[in-house]
Specification:
The complex is a heterodimer of chains A (614) and B (322).
Chain A: H1 6-23, H2 25-28, E1 30-38, H3 47-59, E2 66-69, E3 74-77, H4 81-95, E4 99-107, H5 111-115, E5 122-123, H6 125-128, E6 130-137, H7 139-160, E7 167-171, E8 174-179, H8 182-195, E9 199-206, E10 209-216, H9 218-243, E11 249-253, E12 257-263, H10 268-275, E13 281-286, H11 293-300, E14 308-313, E15 318-328, E16 332-339, E17 346-352, H12 354-366, E18 372-378, E19 381-386, E20 398-401, H13 407-420, E21 426-434, H14 436-490, E22 493-494, H15 496-525, H16 530-562, H17 566-597
Parallel strand pairs in A: 5-22, 14-19
Antiparallel strand pairs in A: 1-3, 1-4, 2-3, 6-12, 6-21, 7-8, 8-10, 9-10, 11-12, 13-15, 13-18, 14-15, 16-17, 17-20, 18-19
Chain B: H1 16-36, E1 40-41, H2 43-46, E2 48-54, H3 61-70, E3 77-81, E4 83-91, H4 99-113, E5 118-125, H5 127-155, H6 158-182, E6 185-186, H7 188-218, H8 224-256, H9 258-281, H10 283-289, H11 294-305, H12 317-321
Parallel strand pairs in B: 1-6
Antiparallel strand pairs in B: 2-4, 2-5, 3-4
Helix pairs in contact in B: 1-6, 3-4, 5-6, 5-7, 6-7, 6-9, 6-10, 7-8, 7-9, 8-9
Classes of the chains: A alpha+beta (614), B alpha+beta (322).
């Protein structure tokens, strides 16, 4: 009665084997590495980069342990930190500003393990050091900004239709248009309703004045907010690239918050400065008068005339632009790729807000026939994306930038323009910084408490239950193995509370074994044969184990749902620990007991530490 | 080895009045401390800034205080933390100053005063984030209780569900009472510990209830009190051993886990100590007083299992008297 069918034994053995394979990477430790990622969103990631990196290493005679490419970029491992730092400098010098080279740590586990997808556990910031920011997007500002745009739009639309109005003003998130008579208001209502279907329009009268109130409906509000947070995340991505951080995490949390985690960052002041930086796009006039061949040649050598700056365009040729800035990226509310209806060529369509539109209209009116440069400032260097000639006065805040090579380039530049500025201001509402030495301390503390606790439990169990105690301890060790394996497989983030949860899971998991062992003793005391006692002990204890674990599971799931950050980390390990402990306490320990006792015909005594007889 | 060899059942239920009285007193005391002293909430909940600074030599608290004062943060508290080399600085939320900026200023001032200062940890939480956490914590507590009650109600009977949850809440309130009395810092990890205790402590009740149900089937002649006494006595060995093992683990955390895990382990320790007692000696009397008997526990199950329709009901002695 105490023999498992072959498949069950094999199942247990296979589970333990899988557990071993996926736990092993955690023991190999990490070796110094560098990570090369494209710095600009327009730079493509392909295998050419891999070859290039290998070539550079060969030329500079840098010894490396391995180079490989993943979804994010190229990574290379080294024997020691000296080579790592030299490699970083060499790579940065050779690859130029198109790529970000960051120091990183990579698992030292052999390739065959990596090919199985076995990676070490992902350590949270409290264990490896780094900084965590929670940023709040000011949605009210995003909506006001949108409303502000409508003020300008309405004025232009009404003027175009020759509808006379007294004034347009913004109050919070609504726009009010004032009229002298009801007739004009009706006409305006029809025009605006047709052009802006996403606005809720409302008519009212104050004294003699007729007012048309336009407000964003809920759908439109939501789409503006969604857009704002997406754009802000994109912008943060670009800015964080400048920091050269390996494996940053930038995630949306809730409707209006963004989590930014920068592992290994120590200079938090610099990180904050870069995250908070604004305006990475500028529009300036090209200095036509001084753009003769001789001056340009001089300028290319770095000698720009007074009052001018010299920047390179995409072909690498120098362009002279005036120092005074016409517009910055702050005024851009949207940018998207498009096609010019006349020429059929790719364009980038930029939308400016009302103030930007006014400035732009004025500048284009005064400078017809001249060239205007659109500059992109990335990583502290400035590049001229395009410098088109102004053909006519451009009003309405919708600017078409032509001269794109293809739709791909148009899409990329639109992305860059959008990415330059934040759609809405952001505040850091939560900051957690953990120094690297603190991280190592935390790991040691977590591991020490787990190991010493485990050792103490093992000794007590073996004294109290002898052979069955040893079986329980083995099951508990396998539980630890499986738990670590699953955490490594899922690449769940392990934090200090997570380590505490591992320890607690072990303390609680032993409960199932205690229940079983006590039951077996009780059956023996009632005079049952050893084989029958083992059988009954496991059978009867199962119901209790299930019930008590389900209730614990409920608590764990609620923790996961309502917890944030470290609490979530605790909950994940807690829940997984309950599941693995049920498997190991019941199936694994039974399999071992079966192997020990199940094949003995004449079993008169069990080694379960019983002194008294029934 | 065998520590528990109890031939006769211990009459736990006859001590019902005593144990309930003890529980009631501790419970009321805990509530009183909670009401008068309140919890000492950490930055996670209240918002504010906490910085841990390490010095290679014993820290000079006076000079640290001066440095913090120099940037106009008079309301800061500065104290030793763990060892004489470590200093903990707490700053409340200041309206109009971003949490991120504040820590940067303090860091600069500290390094200016003593260049060997190493900032090991900064936690700065905005007031609004703290408020939300407060709300989420309450919600988590509520849903955990609700989920556990529902499960127990489905699996056993409503009387057990109510009894178990009262016993559990009693544990939670007592842990909170301890934190209020000693003014230990109540932070996120403590909340996690409390929720873990909820799940853990209900384990206890479930193990006993399970045995009660089994006994009702086996001990057909026994009274409710006898059934419960027997169930508690028979599971006592397991209760003590399991708690000892879990407490060993938690004790190891208390010893080796460092300051960050200290309060977490502390909350668990109190939870485990009171969990042993309450889940058995509070939950069972309550279930009994709510009127648990063979009919409402076994009757239901046998009907569900479609077996015997006949339900054996113990004759009430009072019926014979009349």
């Amino acid at each position: 009665m105490n023999r498992y069918p072959m498949w069950k034994n094999i199942l247990v053995a296979v589970m333990i084997l899988i557990g071993l394979i996926y736990t092993i990477p955690n023991f190999f430790g990490e070796s110094p590495a560098v990570q090369i990622t494209p710095a600009k969103s327009t730079t493509k990631l392909d295998s050419a980069l891999l070859d290039k990196v290998e070539d550079i290493f060969k030329q500079e005679k840098i010894e490396y342990d391995g180079v490989y490419q993943d979804a994010r970029g190229v990574k290379a491992r080294f024997k020691n930190t000296d080579t790592q730092i030299r490699a970083k400098d060499v790579l940065q010098a050779n690859l130029g500003t198109d790529y970000t080279v960051a120091l990183n740590l990579l698992s030292r586990s052999p390739n065959w393990l990596r090919s199985l997808g076995a990676k070490p556990m992902y350590l949270g910031l409290d264990l490896r050091g780094g900084v965590h920011f929670l940023m709040q997007v000011d949605m009210k500002a995003a909506l006001s900004k949108a409303a502000e745009r409508f003020v300008g739009d309405f004025k232009i639309a009404l003027r175009k239709e020759r509808i006379s109005y007294v004034g347009v003003s913004r109050e919070g998130e609504t726009v009010q248009i004032h009229f002298n008579n009801a007739e004009e208001l009706t006409k305006a209502h029809a025009v605006i309703a047709k052009e802006y279907p996403n606005l809720t329009l409302e008519e009212s009268t104050i004294g003699e004045e007729k007012i048309l109130k336009a407000s964003l409906n809920l759908v439109e509000q939501k789409s503006i907010q969604d857009f704002a947070i997406k754009q802000n995340i994109q912008t943060l991505h670009n800015r964080i690239n400048e920091l050269g951080v390996a494996e940053p995490i930038i995630q949306q949390q809730g409707a209006d918050r963004v989590v930014v985690q920068l592992p290994g960052v120590q200079d938090t002041a610099k990180a904050k400065e870069i995250l908070g930086r604004t305006a990475t796009l500028e529009i300036r006039m090209v200095d036509e008068e001084k753009s003769d061949a001789a001056t340009l040649e001089k300028a290319e050598k770095g000698q720009a005339p007074i009052g001018d700056d010299v920047f390179k365009n995409r072909d690498g040729r120098a362009v002279l632009v005036k120092k005074s800035v016409v517009l910055t990226g702050d005024y851009i509310t949207d940018a998207g790729p498009g096609v010019d209806s006349q020429s059929g060529r790719s364009t980038v369509n930029v939308t400016l807000d009302a103030r930007g539109a006014r400035i732009f209209q004025q500048v284009t009116r005064e400078n017809v026939g001249k060239r205007m440069a659109i500059l992109l400032i990335e990583k502290g260097s400035t590049e001229v994306i395009t410098a088109p000639t102004i053909n006519e006065e451009i009003g309405g805040g919708r600017v078409q930038i032509s001269g794109m090579a293809n739709t791909q380039e148009a899409t990329d530049i639109a992305l860059l323009l959008r990415a330059g500025a934040l759609a809405a201001p952001m505040d850091i509402v939560e900051e957690r910084t953990v120094g690297p030495s603190m991280g190592q301390d935390n790991i040691n503390r977590g591991i020490h408490s787990t190991l010493w606790g485990f050792a103490a439990i093992a000794v007590m169990m073996m004294i109290y239950y002898v052979a069955f105690g040893a079986v329980s301890v083995t099951a508990l060790a396998i539980n630890l193995l499986l738990l670590v394996a699953i955490l490594s497989m899922l690449q769940a983030t392990l934090t200090l509370p997570g380590l505490a949860a591992i320890a607690l899971a072990l303390g609680m998991a032993i409960d199932a074994n205690v229940l079983i062992n006590e039951r077996i003793r009780e059956e023996l005391r009632n005079g049952n044969t050893p084989q029958a006692s083992i059988h009954a002990g496991y059978e009867r204890a199962w119901d209790t184990i299930l019930d008590s674990n389900v209730t614990t599971l409920i608590a764990g799931l609620a923790l996961f749902m309502f917890g944030t950050g470290p609490i979530k980390g605790f909950a994940v390990v807690h829940v997984l620990g309950i599941l693995t402990s049920m498997f190991s306490a019941v199936l694994v320990s039974r399999a071992i007991v079966n192997l020990i006792y199940g094949y003995r015909r004449k079993l008169t005594k069990l080694s379960i530490g019983q002194i008294y007889k029934g | 080895m065998e520590l528990f060899r109890i031939k006769k059942d211990i009459p736990f239920m006859s001590y019902g009045r005593l144990t309930t009285a003890i529980s009631l007193v501790t419970f009321i005391l805990a509530v009183v401390f909670l009401a008068t002293r309140g919890l000492n909430f950490g930055v996670d909940f209240t918002g504010g800034t906490v910085m841990e600074v390490n010095y290679p030599q014993a820290a000079n608290l006076e000079s640290v205080r001066k440095a913090v004062d120099s940037i106009g943060l008079k309301e800061a508290t500065v104290q030793n933390f763990g060892s004489s080399h470590d200093v903990l600085i707490r700053l409340p939320v200041k309206t109009g100053v971003s949490v991120a900026k504040l820590s940067e200023e303090v860091k600069a001032a500290l390094v200016a005063a003593d260049s060997t200062a190493e900032v090991r940890r900064v936690e700065a939480v905005g007031a609004q984030v703290g408020d939300e956490l407060y709300e989420n914590g309450g919600l988590a507590l509520f849903f955990v209780s609700l989920g556990i009650m529902l499960y127990l109600w489905l699996r056993f009977e409503w009387r057990f569900a109510v009894a178990a949850i009262i016993a559990n809440m009693h544990d939670v309130v007592i842990i909170l009472g301890f934190f209020a009395f000693f003014q230990w810092e109540f932070n996120l990890t403590v909340l996690a510990a409390i929720l873990a205790v909820l799940g853990y402590s209900v384990n206890e009740s479930v193990v006993v209830f399970d045995r009660v149900r089994e006994n009702f089937r086996k001990m057909r002649k026994a009274s409710v009190v006898q059934v419960i006494d027997n169930a508690i006595t028979r599971t006592m060995s397991r209760t003590i051993i399991t708690h000892t093992m879990t407490q060993t683990m938690v004790g190891s955390m208390l010893l080796f886990g460092g300051e960050v895990l200290h309060n977490f382990a502390l909350a668990l320790t109190i939870g485990i100590l009171f969990g042993i007692y309450s889940s058995v000696l509070v939950a069972c009397p309550i279930a009994m007083w709510l009127g648990v008997n063979r009919a409402n526990l076994i009757g239901d199950i046998e009907k569900k299992e479609g077996g015997k329709k006949e339900v054996v009901v113990e004759p009430d002695p009072s019926e014979f008297a009349s």
